[in-house]
Predict the structure.
Amino acid sequence: MRGTTKTAASGLYRTQRMFLSTMETSVGRKVNEFLLFHNTPKKLKSLVYRAKNATNLLAQNLITSEGEPIVPRSPVQPISENDIIQWIRESEDYDDLLKVKSKLPLFPTTGTTSRLTPNATNEFLFRSVELQRLPHGLATFYSLSGFKGKVGPRSLHAIYLLEYIKLLKTGNPSCYERLESKLQGPLKHTGEQVISHKNGLFHTAIATCKLRYLANDEYKDQELLKEVLKEVENVKAPHSVKDVLESGDLKAIEHTLKANQVLHGVFTALVESIEAAPLAANIPAATIEEIKAYLADVKLLAEKSGEQLLIERLKENAQFKKIEADAEAEIPEEASETDTAESK
């Protein structure tokens, strides 16, 4: 009968199974429903998501390219950055991480709501390292179309913080030259406006990784240590968060903590590295005191909001495969293990 003929929707309406059958926690359902909505072709959205068009939609007998019926759905609300971060954190194993990875390219990367932000993509890196999959996490991050060639300061600092933690936990790569090569790798994916700041914090983050390497090597190269300490001479203390802390506004405290977690981690690593070095860094004592005051205030923000400091979380939970300590500087563009697992 003519009325029962199934018609494939043009402009691929992605299979609903891809969005709705994985990681079915409360926030997982919310994220998946949003992604299903966002990736529905524009000309189908009004049919699928407006109640007044339900009868018309069903009468057309539309199906996806995989033969699934396209049925009316309830209106979808925008999701927040916190929703995306919580969804990523709920990845309990590598399979869950692969499901998240497959969906990251489907998020909007522009606009003011429901988009993939640096905080969200950083969370993917942090969860990757907790599941012992940092190379795959970096490869995914660098390949995201909205971030390709545009890695900003917050993400760059996060990558170097993870490198510091890796040096702390696994020891040094085979030689200093290899470390230098690895530290230059992320800059290939960085926006020019970030690199143009010669005394930017990312230079300090790089120097901090070098100091960790020298500490692991028991400071055998004193001349190199002097050179690296010169690289941090112009470091500036971050902007104070004391006003927010004293305001008592919990929402503002939580927001400020989120914005400062990576920064706090980098400066904690810097202070640890400088204080452990057998040679003094030529940094004004007042600057060091300002940095320490900032670190103490961010710690109080964490206590008031009931959140764990990122640097503590990474020191406790970051896992690295033995082979990663001697891995080549280049992050693989593709990871065959990942692709194989995703295709199952």
About this structure: The first strand starts at residue 7 and ends at 8. Confidence is low (pLDDT under 50) at residues 324-344. The beta strands are 7-8, 62-63. The chain has two domains: 1-94, 152-326.
